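User: Fold this one for me? It's Molybdenum-pterin binding domain-containing protein.
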Amino acid sequence: MKLSARNQLKGKVVEVLKGATTSHVRIDIGGAVITSSITNEAVDELGLKVGQEAYAVVKASDVMVGVSD
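Assistant: Here's what I get for Molybdenum-pterin binding domain-containing protein.
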């Protein structure tokens, strides 16, 4: 797999929650869990299952940073 996105985080699928049209896929990246919302069709095409290795690929033009007072 080759992608232009530089933020490719390898992890393990820990949960796949299917909704009416969209699924929430949770990927554990070394103790931090990233959640992605993708179509049910994409879940089926990728064959996503709990325990499977997967990559969270982050492509964003803006990143917001916040701190608490």
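One thing worth pointing out: Helices lie at 40-46.
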